[in-house]
Every structure is written in structure tokens, then in C-alpha cells.
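Protein entry
_____________
===
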Amino acid sequence: MAAPATLTTDLPTGYRPWPALWAMVIGFFMILVDSTIVSVATPAIMQGLGADVNSVIWVTSAYLLAYAVPLLITGRLGDRIGPKYVYLSGLALFTVASLWCGFTGSIEMLIVARIVQGLGASLMTPQTMAVITRTFPAASRGQAMSLWGATAGVAILVGPLVGGLLVDGPGWQWIFFINVPVGIVAFALAARLVPRLQTHSHSFDWVGVGLSAIGMFLIVFGIQEGETYSWGTITGIISVPLLIAAGVLVFGLFVYWQSRIRTEPLVPLGLFRDRNFSLSNIAITSVGFAITAMAFPFMLYAQVVRGLTPTKSALLLVPMAVLAGALSPVAGRLIDRMHPRTITAFGLALCSLALFLLSAVTTTGSPTWLLLVPMGLMGIANAFMWAPLAATATRNLPMSSAGAGSGIYNTTRQIGAVLGSAAIAALIEARLTANLPGVPQNMSRHTAGVKLPPQLADGFASAMSQSLLMPAGVLLLGVVAALAFTKPTHA
């Protein structure tokens, strides 16, 4: 499958892009697994490091923050240095940081190591989409994006399953150690198969990086720690509402700066003139939010209310992983033939419906088979969300903006994940307080893998059920965005 002659690259004659894409998919799969694998290990990490729920969720939030904020600059870095070299640098950093995560002995050090791991992931992710955009013709890019989308969907679903097997086996540290051999293999394959593409001269907007990082941190910290401080004063004049308001204000300054900067902006606002690009970013934000947010309450419910081991609780996700992987090739073929509005709205709406159903059956008396029904629906939905959204977002982008466009798209996805992680932490604490008044909120640290007594189980299950309604509702915003898609210009 040769790259078309119209692409401005230095690809060799007869170059086949699929082997290179498969090589990069291995690393991409690994970093996405690490976005969710901690969810199934949450009780084990709480026990092993003596942490509470909120502290353990920071292990994921810190990773997602460090992953999301630099994406705006790492996409541009790939355009300037070359996606191959940026990808390999990020993969090496991610692999070393994974080793560090496994050897940590405190929750604070684990959070720091996860930050470094997130930085490595931020270097890798935009390069996969940039290589697809620059080596596959627009009219047939859907099949390539279907592989990218299938990787994203399956990884986020398989992560808890792999985590459960490792936590029940050698221990929670191995959810990080396993990345080391995978990272080495992925590095060797990418170094051999990924081509060196032409570079484009870009400047870097460090002021924009600073504003986006500060704004994101203030909002996430305010949301995630809000319940801890009863949504009031933290210290002195600093309060939770003040932090969130300051974060929103800083983001406003960031957008203003992007519109006024004379050199190349960190976020080329002109890309948002393309309707599908703008709407795809809204939709993928809702997906990142929902998929990240649903994992924590469901895993806590499975292990604390039902008393399942990490492996058995993760097996509840098998229908999602199997159906998402099986149907992604079908979705890939349909992307290039159908109007994007149809396929993406279907996937997003089905995922929202599945989460509403999951919330309804998250009770102490639900039979196991009933939990598998919404999981299967989520698997179908994932096949028709990830790849169609990615393909629709990038189809009309100019080649010189491939890195910037993929960086923006992945940033909005990760922003959704960060906000989902922070919001679900706050909501879980709030619902536990409402449903189990007077009960210590760190009780799940002592009861992981053992059924709660009936007088506590009902309240805990209700709290997790109510928490699942939030990601289900957020996905409806994505449905609205998808319904407004227009036909791609290449068609």
C-alpha cells in the first residue's frame, strides 16, 4: 500500500505504512492501558501504601495531567524534529518511569513517578496520529484510524483485566513492571519500521504552555479536593471555589493569548474553522471523561460490595474488550462510506445508554449476568466511537498541521480524562458521605476483596450507582456534537 505521490514526505518508493503503524500501536496501547490499569489496583495500592481513595485517584489524575498539558507542544515538536525521534524519546522515558513506579514505597513517590510516566506518554501519542495523517491518503485513512481507534478502545477496556491478573498474581507493582519488556520490544520495532518524515520549522509558545498547565492544575485540584475541604476554605483566603474560578480565568487568558500571539500559537485557532474538527474535539472530550470516570466506581463496587478479587472483577469487562476489538474493523470499513454523523452519534448514544443501564443494575442483589449486558453494549459503542471520531477530526487537516492537529485532539481527549478522574473522585466522596453518614470514608482500604456487611453494602452500592450517572450524562453532550457533523470535504 504505497503512499500517494501528493504527500510531502521523503518516504521511500513503494513504502508500506501498515508495518510502521503496527509498530507504533504497541507503544500507544501500552500508554493507554496505564491510563486505566490503576483503577482495578486501587484497593491493593491503598492497602500496600496506606493511602485513602482520594490519594490513590491522584495516582491516575497526576498521570493524566502530565500526559495532557504537554500534548499541545509535543505535537508541534514532532513536526519540527520528526515524529519518529520524538516517539522513541517518549517511549524510552515512559519505560524507565514504569520501572520507577514499580519500585516506589510511598504514595507520594508513586505520584511523582506517574508524572514522569505521563510526560513520556505525552511525547508519544501525537506522533501516532501524525504518522497516519502523513502516510495514508485522506480517502482511505478511515481504516488506519480504525486500528488507532481500536487500540484506544480495547486498551482502556483491557487495562483493568490485565491489572486484575497482575494484582492477584505477583502484586500491584507488576502493573508497572510489565511495561518494561513491552517497551523494549516496541522501541526496537519502531526504530526499524517507522519512517523519517520531513520536518517543518515551528516556534514554541512557552507562555501558552505555562498558562494551560496552571489553568488545568487549578481546576483539577479544585474539583478533586473539593469534598475534602467541604467545598469551602482551604487556607486563609484560598478556597475551593476561588481555585476553580482562577483556573477558568487562566484558561480564558490562554485563549486570548493564542488569538494575539504574533508567532505560531500553541493552539492554531484557525484549525477550529473546520466544523468537524471542532465538533470532534467536543465529542472526544466527553468520551475521555466518561471512560475514565466509570472505571473507578465500578471497580470499587465489584471488589468492595460483591467481594470479587481484582481478576474476577476485571473479568466483568471482557464483553467490552471482545466486542470492541471484533467490531472495530467493521467500523473502519464503514467510516469511509458513511456520513460521520450517523456512525459516531450511534456509538456515543449507545455508550451513554449502557452507562445508564449499568447504574441501574449496580446493586447488592444483581446477578452477575445482568452486569454483563451493559458491558457488552459498551463494547459495541466503543468500536463506533474512537476510530470514527479520530478519522473525522483529522480528514481535512493540512499536512503541515498534522502534528498540531493531533496534539490538540489528543489534548482535549486527555482533558476530558483528567476532569473525569477529578470529578468522579469528588462525586464518590460526596455520595459515600450522603449514603453512609458517620462511616469512615477510608473503609474500602480495609475491606477490599471482602464483602461489606449488609448494613454498609447497600449504601456503598447506591453511592457507586449514583456516581455512574455522571459519565452517562456527559456523553450526551458528545451525541449532540456528533449530530452536527458535516460530510468530509474529500468526499
Summary: The chain is about 75% helix and 0% strand. Confidence is low (pLDDT under 50) at residues 1-9. The first strand starts at residue 233 and ends at 235. The first helix runs from residue 17 to 49.
